[in-house]
Design a protein that fits this description.
Elements (H helix, E strand, L loop, with lengths): L29 H5 L1 E4 L4 E6 L25 E6 L1 E10 H5 L8 H23 L18 H4 L2 E9 L2 H14 L5 E4 L1 H8 L22 E2 L7 E5 L11 E6 L4 E13 L6 E14 L5 E7 L1
Parallel strand pairs: 1-10, 5-12, 6-8
Antiparallel strand pairs: 2-3, 4-11, 6-9, 7-8, 9-12, 10-11
Length: 297
């Protein structure tokens, strides 16, 4: 008799469903987690920047009167808060039935919604672009992100990233008076930087047998101890080049007008509705506190 597929027709046998739920969607949010926070008190969030006069030879003869150069006023930097929402709905039947992997579908969806809104905030902090209608009466506030704030920009299209070029980028920021301490780039550029050999050390435990082929901290003459992050939103589908962003993290903050809040909405039917809302913007203390470069691999 030929062997056939085995089919269990015994209705008393329980299904084999593990209480495990796997979700591989990306949730790495280096900016939301790593940047400092501050408090916004209005939808239009403003702060001041100033500059010193150019360096000069400063020498006077004995008894000379003081001279009074024209003073310069500070200038204002502005960003607008962005309202973000993530809603979810769970039927009362779904909440009541026996489920695998979690007890409450409502709580599970609330946790998912928090992760999604955090991802959206990360995207806006990096790539936010304000529309021309900002400041009018009826507008959805959109924050300006890091890539649009930075003034030290250049296009190196068609040129592969080299260690010399990276050090030039770091020096450009040092020249204006600060240092880069964090670099965000696509995984492809992160792997290229890991192939650099000068001024790079790969630390490992001699008892750990794994091969280490990644650099997470880079040191150069113009920037000491630069943290390297592979970031998912620096370059996205549709971009023509691979961007690399370097900033002084101490000069960037997430300013919250309203921190994330999970709230249950009014019940209007046989379901429970939830909503998460936050309102925040990016605070860039100075547009020269970092660099943006676009180039190929």
């Amino acid at each position: 008799m030929a062997a056939g597929a085995y089919v269990n027709l015994d209705k008393s046998v329980r299904e084999d469903l593990m209480s495990v739920l796997t979700n591989l969607s990306p949730t790495d949010t280096q900016l939301v987690t790593g940047l400092g926070t501050s408090t916004a008190k209005n939808r239009k969030h403003e702060w001041l920047i100033d500059t010193l006069s150019a360096v000069k030879t400063n020498a006077y003869i004995e008894g000379a009167d003081a001279s009074y150069p024209t003073i310069t006023d500070p200038s204002r930097m502005t960003n607008y808060t962005q309202i973000m929402q993530q809603s979810f709905l769970v039927s009362d039947t779904e909440e009541a039935v026996d489920k695998a992997a979690f007890n409450s579908r409502y709580q599970y969806e609330a946790t998912k919604a928090l992760k999604m809104i955090k991802n959206d905030l990360e995207y806006s902090l990096m790539r936010g672009v304000q529309p021309s209608t900002m400041g009018t009466e009826s507008y959805a506030g959109v924050m300006q992100g890091i890539k649009t704030f930075l003034c030290i920009t250049c296009t190196s299209s068609g040129t592969s990233l080299s260690e010399l070029m990276l050090n030039d980028y770091l020096q450009n920021v040092w020249n204006v008076g600060t240092e880069v301490n964090a670099i965000y780039c696509p995984m492809a550029l992160k792997r290229r930087i890991s192939g650099f050999t000068a001024n790079a050390t790969k630390y490992f435990d001699q008892n750990d047998k794994r091969l280490i082929n990644a650099i997470d901290v880079y040191s150069s003459d113009a920037a000491k101890l630069v943290k390297l992050f592979a970031h998912r939103h620096v370059t996205v589908t549709g971009d023509t080049n691979y961007d690399i962003v370097g900033i002084n993290e101490d000069l960037f903050k997430v300013a919250y007008l309203r921190k994330p809040t999970v709230r249950e909405l009014a019940k209007t039917g046989d379901a429970t509705k939830g909503n998460i809302v936050l309102e925040a913007t990016l605070e860039c203390k100075h547009p020269h506190a970092g660099f943006l470069r676009s180039q190929c691999l």
